[in-house]
Amino acid sequence: MSRPSNPIAQGFRRVDLEGGAQNVVSTVAAWKAHASQMSMTMDLIFFSAACCVVAASLISTIEVFLTEIAPFDLIDCVYLLVFGTKMFILDAPVRFKGIVEAQAFIVKYFAFLTRFTGRGIWYIFLGTMTFATLWDNQIWYFGAVVLGFYVFLIGVFATVMGAMKSRKLNRVRQQVRRQNADTEQMFNSYARSNPQEGMNADEFNLLSGQVAGISFRSDELTFVMNALCNDGRIGITQRDFHGWINGRAILL
Questions:
Q1: How far does the signal peptide extend, from start to end residue (predicted)?
Q2: Does 2 map to a domain?
């Protein structure tokens, strides 16, 4: 039996074998490369939103620092700059070593930002904060409306799309539960290429298609695997699978 191809898994396998600082670069490079291949348009839209936040925060920080004695307003501007810079780095469409290492840190400690819904909710927050910072400090009313609402609407769109993708995944979970099947036996039936490593994306898509009649696109599988794989693993383990089937719905 030929082994299904899994670009994400292959990227992570290289990380496990090489060790050292190169681990971080290879890990995030694999994740970003696969995700961007399938959703380049959304990546660029997210990056443009991050650029708007960074631009608004820089203008606000400089303006407040030079023209006012308002420490609390300045702290608010700096917070926005930090939050915007974090998203700027995460969504940056580049592969420089320093950027990729910073992305690895964000992916590790702020995993919810790698999920479609989580990123959408975060951009809703940044959109409202961008508007409030520029408007309340009387810095740039036009920019507050244009930049703030642009980021906010991107956040709303991403949140809605994430909810729809999550609902699709939950339909698979519900269909599996209706069959009252033995989750261990079902897992072993599909996780055949490397059971120790877990069920890969192709195998999960095969399961969802045969059991629930639902197939996921490659970009959707990226978010599915990211949500279902725990402890930094590259595949869905039997424990992950059992917990997902018998637990609550997961947001992608």
A1: none
A2: no
Residue 38 φ/ψ region, left for φ over 0, alpha for ψ in the -120 to 50 degree band, beta for the rest: alpha
4 sits in the region (left: phi over 0; alpha: psi -120 to 50; else beta) called beta
Q: pTM for the complete prediction?
A: 0.73
- C-alpha dihedral sign at 233, 235, 237, 241: positive
pLDDT tens digits, residue range 94-123?
A: 777 788 888 778 777 787 887 888 889 999
Contacts of 161 (CB under 8 A, 6+ apart): 116, 120
**What whole-number distance in Å separates Cα of residue 252 and Cα of residue 200?**
17
3 in a structural domain = no
Please tell me whether residues 54 and 138 are part of one structural domain. yes
- Which amino acid, residue 55? A
